[in-house]
Amino acid sequence: MQRDHGLPHSHENQNRMGAVFILIVVYMVIEVIAGFATKSLALLADAGHMLTDAGAIGLALLAMGFARRPATQKNTYGFYRMEILAALINAVILLGISFYILYEAWERFKNPPAIQSIPMLIVATIGLGVNLFSMKLLHAQAEHNLNIKAAYLEVLSDMLASIGVIAASLIMIFTHWYYADPLISAGIGLFILPRTWNLLNQSVHILLEGTPLHIKLDEVEAAIQSVDGVKAIHDLHVWTITSGIDSLSAHIAVDVNAHHHKILTALQELLQARFKISHTTIQLEEERCKQPGC
Q1: Domain match, 180 and 227 both
Q2: Does residue 291 fall inside a structural domain?
Q3: CA–CA distance, 66 with 48 (Å, rounded to integer)
Q4: At residue 111, what are phi and psi to the nearest 5 degrees?
């Protein structure tokens, strides 16, 4: 039984994610050591943030490994949806991080601690370089794969945190105004929230088998009805299996004397060329009359 659904994943995507994971883990260890050496709570807290990110990206890598497994009699689509589940979990984790940042910022507004600003600046600058390089590795595929997009947002949140820490440390070095730390932290949390909410909505929408956001169902229906021999269409459904794979199923009424193979070929070519839908299940039905009960 053929179950190849044309998943556009590649070893390159997995290798890029693996490289980002290693970079984050290595920098996290450096940040923990620096945090204890300088007694900087801010660095230790950021290391905790990076530990959460490393866990989320590790989960994404695990999901990508599952997605590469072949389909079985029990799982005829394979394990493609594992990537969407991982993106959903990552979105929830990011929301938790955002709310934690906002909570911690509120606590520090009430009682801002004195921070060793110079070591904080040095480590944050190194972290910024790590995050920028990681973002470069992931950027090309972030808009085409929800799993990679989730990892990209994880690294983006780290990059913003690094910029915030750098800015806060410079302010505190020159002014000793320790309210800079919670103020910038709150801005980072508010920046992350809407992007994470969008990722969460996309993941849930796919799991609920909603129509892909880039496809308008009425346009698909109109395109199908424009094919010679097609008379009517019903039970039209379009949904996403995983990032990059959209599926369509439909019942299509055709002329009694229509050439079924010719119509089916025309429909498949049209859907692939115009809507990038390569996996289709189309049932052709001869339209013998239009009266109810015919």
Answers
A1: no
A2: no
A3: 27
A4: -150, 80
In angstroms, the CA 230 to CA 263 distance is 8
Number of H helices, E strands in the chain: 8, 3
Give me the mean pLDDT over the 20-27 stretch.
88
- Distance of alpha carbon 291 from its chain centroid, rounded? 48
Backbone angles phi, psi at 212, to 5 degrees: -50, 140
> How much is the pTM?
0.71
| Number of domains the chain is built from | 2
Residues 164 and 203 in one domain: yes
Domain region containing 261: 217-286
At which residue do the structure tokens 């009359």 appear?
Answer: 289
- Which residue blocks in 143-255 are alpha helix, DSSP H? 146-175, 180-207, 217-225
Alpha carbon separation from 37 to 50, 71, 91, 241 (Å, rounded): 18, 51, 33, 48
Domain CATH code at residue 31: 1.20.1510.10
Q: What is the pLDDT of residues 235-263, one digit of tens each?
A: 999 998 877 788 999 999 998 887 888 99
Structure tokens at 189: 């949390």
pLDDT band at 79; cut points 50, 70, 90: confident
Tokens of 23: 């970079």
